[in-house]
Amino acid sequence: QVLLVESGGGLVQPGGSLELSCAASGGTAGTYAMGWFRQAPGKDREFVGTMIWSGGSTFYADSVKGRFTISRDSAKKTVFLQMNSLKVEDTAVYYCAWTGYKSTFYGVSDELRYDYWGQGTQVTVSS
Questions:
Q1: Sign of CA dihedral 122, 81, 35, 107
Q2: pLDDT, tens digit, for every residue of 35-86?
Q3: What pLDDT sits at residue 64?
Q4: pLDDT of residue 70
Q5: What is the pLDDT of residue 37?
Q6: 30 neighbors 40 (Cβ within 8 angstroms)
Q7: Could you tell me which of 7, 1, 97 has the C-alpha nearest to residue 45?
Q8: How confident is the model at residue 30 (pLDDT cuts 50, 70, 90)?
């Protein structure tokens, strides 16, 4: 069992920045990746980015590439999502997700790959 606790959401103006954090606890020894997804009102949940825990490689959705950055504090088992140059269309509930090592058809950008989810944190970009 892995518990994910997110924080850092809020209201920001277009062009502004915000940083989300996600702290993992519990059975995290077999972490393969920790990622971020988001869901805007009336839309499906979509991939934002993820970090492969061993080595720290990161992958991003095209819509956020160059604006969002994922980093981590390994000792605290915490992953961060730094969001810069925010746009109105970035408004959504952001979810942290965790996946362990396993045989699966699903890639790291597919939500079905992930085993545990945070509660979500609202990010609103508005003037």
A1: positive
A2: 999 999 999 999 999 999 999 999 999 999 999 999 999 899 999 999 999 9
A3: 97
A4: 98
A5: 98
A6: no
A7: 97
A8: confident
- The alpha carbon of 88 is separated from its chain's Cα centroid by a whole number of angstroms, namely 18
Residue type, 61: A
Nearest partner of 71 among 26, 37, 21, 116, judged by Cα: 21
C-alpha 47/C-alpha 35 separation (Å) is: 8
Residue 106, token pair as written in the block = 């699903």
E strand or H helix at 98: strand 92-100
Please identify which residue in the block is written with the tokens 């720290």.
56
The secondary structure of 60-75 as a DSSP string is E-TTTTTTEEEEEEGG
